[in-house]
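Saturday, quiet lab. Running sequence design on the structure tokens for the scaffold JK sent over.
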């Protein structure tokens, strides 16, 4: 059984993320969306809110499980008995950092492969950071995220 881990903070989960998850679900027997605690990034949503949003946005997508983690990614990958770490590449600017991560993960866990997927063209420019910034300034993010995420972003502005 081929299991892929798709890690990230998903703060918030975007249409770019969901595009990759839907396509990965066609390639693997199981896709674990690994929501990282990442307190160092000072996420806008709590870990439980990010997991909850991912569960709601991905409800009904076969072969997908959402799990939070706060350990070293390769250790989490081993715990889940996963074969692959899945990463998204939006642009050439992502490549150097992702290549460095893949090399380090290979060194720490040579039995785990890293695979890259590129998003569909219409999602290539979407990032959680940009979505949060646009929403914080009152902009419309409805074409970048699921309606439940729009609602959460709008609700968290007044909090």
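Result came back. Writing it out in full:
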């Amino acid at each position: 059984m081929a299991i892929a881990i798709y890690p990230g903070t998903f703060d918030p989960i975007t249409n770019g993320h969901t595009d990759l998850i839907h396509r990965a679900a066609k390639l693997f027997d199981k896709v674990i969306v690994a929501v990282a605690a990442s307190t160092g990034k000072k996420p806008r949503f709590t870990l439980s809110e990010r997991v909850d949003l991912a569960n709601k946005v991905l409800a009904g997508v076969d072969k997908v499980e959402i799990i939070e983690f706060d350990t070293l990614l390769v250790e989490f990958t081993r715990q889940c008995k996963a074969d692959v770490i899945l990463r998204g590449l939006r642009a050439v600017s992502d490549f150097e950092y992702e290549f460095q991560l893949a090399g380090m993960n290979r060194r720490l866990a040579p039995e785990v492969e890293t695979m890259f997927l590129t998003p569909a063209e219409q999602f290539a420019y979407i990032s959680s950071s940009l979505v949060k910034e646009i929403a914080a300034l009152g902009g419309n993010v409805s074409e970048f995220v699921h309606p439940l995420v729009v609602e959460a972003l709008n609700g968290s502005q007044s909090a």
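Notes for JK: Residues 3-156 form a domain with the Rossmann fold fold (CATH 3.40.50.620). Residues 17 and 23 are 10 Å apart (CA to CA). Ask whether to fix the surface positions before the next round.
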